[in-house]
Amino acid sequence: MVEPRVRLLIADRVHTLAPDPEPHTDALLLRGDRILQTGRASELREGLDPTQVLRLHGVITPGLTDAHIHLIEWALARTMADLSVAESPEAIVDAVTRHAAERPDDEWVRGTGWNPHRWGGAYPDRALLDRAVPDRPVVLQSHDMHALWVNGTALQRAGITDDTADPPNGRIVRDETGRATGVLLEYAAQLVNRAAPAPSVDTVMDAVADAQQVLHRFGITGVHAFPNVHMQNMPPLLVLQALRAQQRLDLRVLQHLPVEQLDDIIGIGLRSGFGDGLLRVGGIKMFLDGALGSRTAWMREPYEDSDDTGMRVLEPRRFEQLVARAAAAGLASVVHAIGDAAVSLALDVLGRAPRSGLAMPHRIE
Fold first, then answer.
1. What is the rounded average pLDDT of the residues 153-175?
2. Count of other CB atoms within 10 angstroms of residue 314
3. Is-contact 178 325, C-beta < 8 A?
4. Helices (H), the chain
5. Are 318 and 333 in contact (CB under 8 A)?
6. Is the model's pLDDT at 231 over the cut of 70?
7. pTM of the predicted model, to two decimals?
8. At residue 232, does pLDDT exceed 80?
């Protein structure tokens, strides 16, 4: 077995986050991917030849960890129309029209990042998209990932009509005449997502490999990744394991798993903390409510100018049962709770939940 190479990295300064740092620390001594020692370059370079020394300009700091990211969805979103700066529905339509023209071979036109609060909070209407792109399905994800805005063609592909009932834990937004406007909230979005073609594993792998380089440029070397809200047919562990097998995974990932797969997860014996320093199993992700941006966060009092208190998407007794069952199998719970009613319930249930034997704490997202 070949012994890992020893290298010395020298910078203007090295931040170690030690409680009493040595003020003249400017070097890291490495063996392979492990830090052996930090200190002064003049002392650590003794015995090394010039090929083992790398001089860097600037400051070396510990890598950052993003504690909540939908890694696969974000990676794929980078290939879609960016709607995050649009100040009006009309500006979004302009961006989508350009994107559709640039990608004429795409069967479905996709975008992400629209924010209704940039123009007063009113939901947009499908008629704008129908006029701009009438011949292809258009699917636009909101900035908070809790709403879709789609055109009439996408509604048709999904089999949604004005008479389609709201699915459990979802809402098809309608106008005063009962017409579906093209905005789908929470689990109603799955009606369209299930009708859309899924990208290939190779496409997703390439997108994640590219996205991790962007994270590295921000100094992010680790992420806590969450299940795909809108891509339930693309298991993140499958993608990440495939990347790792090809030696293309350069990001430390704590991957949380969806509660919908709890039976399978328990059945094969996965536990929180299983894995290694590069890829590790996190907790079980559950949703209690939606988001403030889409007015689906579950609140104690109604939203302004409304009698709507948002959406509770998991019944309290069922939530408590799922948390207890997961904990008994060695799985922590990571719970999406945004509104004050949802957060209160999460605190009550997670505060009583078993914690002994878990590799990580329960937590609210």
1. 95
2. 21
3. no
4. 41-44, 71-77, 89-102, 126-132, 152-158, 189-193, 201-217, 236-245, 262-267, 316-328, 340-352
5. no
6. no
7. 0.84
8. no
